[in-house]
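Example 3.2
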Amino acid sequence: MFKGAIVAIVTPFKNGEVDEEALRELVEFQIENGTDGIVPCGTTGESATMSHEEHDRVVEIVVDAVNKRVPVIAGTGSNNTKEALRLTKHAHEVGADGALMVTPYYNRPTQEGLYQHYKMVAEEVPIPIILYNVPSRTGTNLLPETDARLSRISNIVGVKEATADLKQVSKIIDLCGDDFAVISGDDFTVFPILAVGGKGVISVVSNVAPADMASMIDAFEAGDMDKAKELHYKMRSLMDALFFETNPVPTKAALAMMGKIEYELRLPLCGMSDANYERLKKVVSDYGLI
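Structure, written as tokens:
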């Protein structure tokens, strides 16, 4: 259902507000360059600093701008199950094609708590759900055995794995079967995850180089391993540079350098240090993006 190069799109701000015009232009940039899906209001979209009204509005804007050309998978996760339920209902009501739900953060539920959290939302909202496992941010690892339990719920269709742990990824694929989409949540592991049976990526790099990420996955699916490997290593400099500081700070800086958005973030995120900004600028320039 969901596969290929899916972008975790940034949320552009201007004068403290969501920049709707820039967001719509980013959607067009993605679709024109072969992106297979768009995730608004994820971590890269700074969902943690948006009000509920802004969150809802960003999903609505992206659904409208995409106009069914590619799937829209709205970020709807929360560490409050009722809040996650509300966000997921809204995404379904406004026409999103799926929901991306991060594991509840900070309160560190057990595996049973994680199961019950996702089960409740899935049973209440008939929208395809992708689980999102990123222990480095949440403090909790969604284990393969829990993925397997959840995969038996009909509208839980995959997981975004951001552990960079190929043993865990392989175990999920083995336990859950081919109908359950394992999607990389880390750009550097896309190529190896595809090799063990993954379906694609929810990507940060696709914000700035969507055509290359889409081409890498297309080449892999066509059996052109040489081209896929070449693109993997071509993008390596961006994979590193966009994490010189906390995501999405460098990504927004790079997009601003490219003239696509204002370089504006919300506290507690702030602009890059001068030294890292210059390092990033050199990578972006050497890559040919500016």
